[in-house]
Amino acid sequence: MEQRRHWWNGKWGRLARRDVFLRVDGERWHVEQRAGGAEGVSRFYEHPSVEEAEETVRALLDGPDTWRELSPRPPGAGDRA
After folding, report:
1. How much is the average pLDDT of 10-18?
2. Distances (CA, A) of 47 to 50, 61, 72, 78, 79
Protein backbone atom coordinates (compact mmCIF):
# COMPACT_ATOMS: atom_id res chain seq x y z
CA MET A 1 0.00 0.00 0.00
CA GLU A 2 1.37 3.40 -1.00
CA GLN A 3 0.59 6.58 0.91
CA ARG A 4 -0.28 9.38 -1.49
CA ARG A 5 -1.31 12.26 0.79
CA HIS A 6 -1.51 13.14 4.49
CA TRP A 7 -3.31 15.97 6.29
CA TRP A 8 -2.96 17.03 9.93
CA ASN A 9 -5.21 19.41 11.85
CA GLY A 10 -2.18 21.25 13.28
CA LYS A 11 -2.92 20.36 16.88
CA TRP A 12 -0.64 18.53 19.27
CA GLY A 13 -1.69 16.11 21.95
CA ARG A 14 -3.54 12.85 22.17
CA LEU A 15 -6.95 14.47 22.63
CA ALA A 16 -6.69 17.16 19.93
CA ARG A 17 -4.63 15.72 17.08
CA ARG A 18 -6.40 14.39 13.97
CA ASP A 19 -4.90 12.99 10.76
CA VAL A 20 -6.35 11.96 7.40
CA PHE A 21 -4.40 9.71 5.04
CA LEU A 22 -5.03 8.85 1.39
CA ARG A 23 -3.48 5.57 0.23
CA VAL A 24 -3.68 3.32 -2.81
CA ASP A 25 -3.27 -0.44 -3.08
CA GLY A 26 -3.52 -1.66 -6.65
CA GLU A 27 -6.80 -0.25 -7.90
CA ARG A 28 -8.39 0.27 -4.46
CA TRP A 29 -8.19 3.61 -2.68
CA HIS A 30 -8.13 3.83 1.11
CA VAL A 31 -8.83 6.77 3.41
CA GLU A 32 -7.86 6.63 7.07
CA GLN A 33 -9.25 9.09 9.61
CA ARG A 34 -7.20 8.95 12.82
CA ALA A 35 -7.91 10.70 16.12
CA GLY A 36 -5.29 10.83 18.84
CA GLY A 37 -1.97 10.57 17.03
CA ALA A 38 0.01 7.43 16.22
CA GLU A 39 -1.60 5.42 19.01
CA GLY A 40 -5.08 6.82 18.40
CA VAL A 41 -8.26 5.32 17.01
CA SER A 42 -8.76 5.02 13.25
CA ARG A 43 -11.72 4.71 10.90
CA PHE A 44 -11.13 3.31 7.43
CA TYR A 45 -12.95 3.90 4.14
CA GLU A 46 -12.32 1.93 0.94
CA HIS A 47 -13.20 3.17 -2.55
CA PRO A 48 -12.90 1.85 -6.12
CA SER A 49 -11.77 5.22 -7.54
CA VAL A 50 -9.58 8.15 -6.57
CA GLU A 51 -12.50 10.52 -7.16
CA GLU A 52 -14.64 8.78 -4.55
CA ALA A 53 -11.73 8.65 -2.09
CA GLU A 54 -11.04 12.37 -2.57
CA GLU A 55 -14.72 13.12 -1.95
CA THR A 56 -14.44 11.33 1.41
CA VAL A 57 -11.26 13.27 2.22
CA ARG A 58 -13.00 16.59 1.43
CA ALA A 59 -15.87 15.68 3.76
CA LEU A 60 -13.47 14.70 6.56
CA LEU A 61 -11.47 17.93 6.23
CA ASP A 62 -14.61 20.09 6.33
CA GLY A 63 -15.03 21.96 9.60
CA PRO A 64 -13.35 24.42 11.93
CA ASP A 65 -9.86 22.88 12.01
CA THR A 66 -7.01 24.41 10.00
CA TRP A 67 -5.74 21.41 8.04
CA ARG A 68 -2.16 21.22 6.76
CA GLU A 69 -1.01 18.86 4.09
CA LEU A 70 2.15 16.96 4.99
CA SER A 71 4.36 15.42 2.33
CA PRO A 72 4.58 11.63 2.36
CA ARG A 73 8.03 10.32 3.25
CA PRO A 74 9.81 8.99 0.15
CA PRO A 75 10.77 5.29 0.27
CA GLY A 76 14.03 4.83 2.15
CA ALA A 77 14.00 8.37 3.57
CA GLY A 78 14.51 7.09 7.10
CA ASP A 79 17.35 4.77 6.10
CA ARG A 80 20.95 5.72 6.69
CA ALA A 81 23.66 4.71 4.23
Report:
1. 93
2. 7, 17, 20, 30, 32
